[in-house]
């Protein structure tokens, strides 16, 4: 019987660069860690756009034995999701046919390449020497 040691964590991105095959859509990965024997355990990962009722099955998780105790890392990568969209995922843990626990969370995918977003900028202008005359448009930048 396995126990979830590290709950599922979301990693956005790692989609192909703009202009390459697959760059029209985004992707995300889920990673979690278990301890104990996986002999009767099964994990089902699903996702859907927020507000919809139908879950889509993700690929089966891949596993890596860490070699530390009985810790096993589980990873699922989902490709083909829309950019700038609210999704939710769930990871259901079964022992045999019995549902043991569910981990569910909402998230938003990245903005598409070329999407312009205003980013706030904090700028501190200093004039350490009050006798120093700066021309219009000139300024000194100080680190905060």
Alpha-carbon distance between the termini?
A: 53 Å
The number of domains is 1
CATH architecture: Sandwich
What string, H for helix and E for strand, traces the elements in order?
EEEEEEEEEE
Number of helices: 0
Strand content: over 45%
Oligomer status: single chain
Label the structural class: mainly beta
Largest sheet: 4 strands, antiparallel
Helix share, percent? under 10%
Please state the average pLDDT score. 85
Organism: Okeanomitos corallinicola TIOX110
Pfam family, one: Pur_ac_phosph_N
Protein name: Fibronectin type III domain-containing protein
InterPro entries: FN3_dom, FN3_sf, Ig-like_fold, PAPs_N
Task: Please write out the topology.
Blueprint: E1 2-12, E2 26-36, E3 41-49, E4 56-57, E5 62-65, E6 72-81, E7 86-95, E8 98-108, E9 125-126, E10 140-141
Antiparallel strand pairs: 1-2, 2-6, 3-4, 3-7, 5-6, 7-8, 9-10
Description:
It contains no helices and ten strands. The chain has 144 residues and is mostly beta strands. It has a four-stranded antiparallel beta sheet, with no helix packed on it. Strands 4-3-7-8 form a four-stranded antiparallel beta sheet, with no helix packed on it. Strands 9-10 form a two-stranded antiparallel ribbon. It holds the Pfam family Pur_ac_phosph_N.
Give a brief rundown of this model.
The protein has a four-stranded antiparallel beta sheet with strand order 1-2-6-5, with no helix packed on it. It is 0% helix and 50% strand. Strand 5 and strand 6 (72-81) form a beta hairpin.
């Amino acid at each position: 019987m396995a126990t979830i040691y590290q709950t599922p964590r979301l990693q956005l991105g790692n989609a192909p660069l703009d202009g390459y095959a697959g760059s029209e859509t985004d992707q995300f990965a889920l990673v979690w860690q278990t301890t104990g024997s996986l002999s009767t355990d099964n994990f089902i990962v699903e996702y859907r756009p927020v507000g919809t009722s139908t879950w889509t099955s993700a690929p089966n998780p891949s596993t890596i034995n860490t070699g530390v105790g009985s810790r096993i890392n589980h990873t699922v990568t989902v490709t083909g999701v829309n950019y700038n969209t609210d999704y939710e995922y769930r990871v259901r843990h079964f022992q045999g046919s019995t549902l043991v626990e569910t981990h569910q969370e909402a998230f938003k995918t990245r903005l598409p390449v070329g999407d312009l977003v205003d980013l706030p900028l904090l700028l501190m202008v200093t004039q350490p020497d009050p006798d120093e005359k700066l021309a219009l448009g000139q300024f000194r930048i100080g680190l905060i």
